[in-house]
Amino acid sequence: MIKNYELSNEKKLISTSEMKNFTYVLNPTREEIGNISEHYDFPFDYLSGILDDYENARFETDDNDNNLILLQYPALSKYGEVATFPYSLVWTKNESVILALNHEIDNGLIFEREYDYKRYKHQLIFQVMYQMTHTFHDYLRDFRTRRRRLEVGIKNSTKNDQIVDLIAIQASLIYFEDALHNNMQVLQNFIDYLREDDEDGFAEKIYDIFVETDQAYTETKI
């Protein structure tokens, strides 16, 4: 699925039939990835990386000044666990932003906020990364609640249901620890890149994402 958006006079992202300011790509086929990468003239693997659930996080810039940051985000897997999966965030030489992923997210905040015409690229990148990072915190908050409930249940029950649920939480935390660690390394590389030629304080905004990621990583380890 490919959905295209442009910035309206009201500074909001609205649907359009053409690839303009923002392209949202969900569960793409290789053909759809090929069409998008050809349209924007960036490498095919900038988006195709999301087809591999185990794709490593990375940051890249090509010879045409197109940029990719590929990070991990949490979502329910087909096995009922909360696993982590890759998402690609690409911004192009002509100021377009593309988000590609294989699991639907709550993207309401991305479309609710207003964007400044001169800075919408950075604002949109930050909003996407902020929302993805906070998904970790949302799940961790849920895990804390479930763990406390299960600890009480285990003391008062001989059933195996609580043990199974604890095992599922543990499996999810293993995914989280690896993903957050990799995300932090890539975010640090991204910040170093931005600080070489800081654009309107954008590096400091990404550093805020780094701090949020570090907090989630610390809580996951605990």
User: What is the succession of H and E elements?
Assistant: EEEHHEEEEHHHH
> What about the largest sheet?
7 strands, mixed
Shape: globular
| Alpha-beta classification | alpha+beta
Strand content: 15-25%
Radius of gyration: 19 Å
CATH class: Alpha Beta
* Approximate helicity band: 40-55%
CATH superfamily membership, which one?
CorA soluble domain-like
Short descriptors:
alpha+beta; 7-stranded mixed beta sheet; 222 residues; Beta Polymerase, domain 2
If you had to describe this structure to a student in words, what would you say it looks like?
The structure is a single chain. The protein contains six helices and seven strands; from the N terminus they run βββααββββαααα. It is α+β, with helices and mostly antiparallel strands. It has a single domain, classed as CorA soluble domain-like (Beta Polymerase, domain 2), CATH 3.30.460. Strand 4 and strand 5 form a beta hairpin. It is globular.
List the topology elements.
Layout: E1 2-7, E2 13-16, E3 22-26, H1 30-40, H2 45-48, E4 58-61, E5 67-76, E6 82-91, E7 97-101, H3 108-112, H4 120-155, H5 161-196, H6 202-221
Helix pairs in contact: 4-5, 4-6, 5-6
Write a compact overview of the structure shown.
The chain is globular and about 60 Å long.
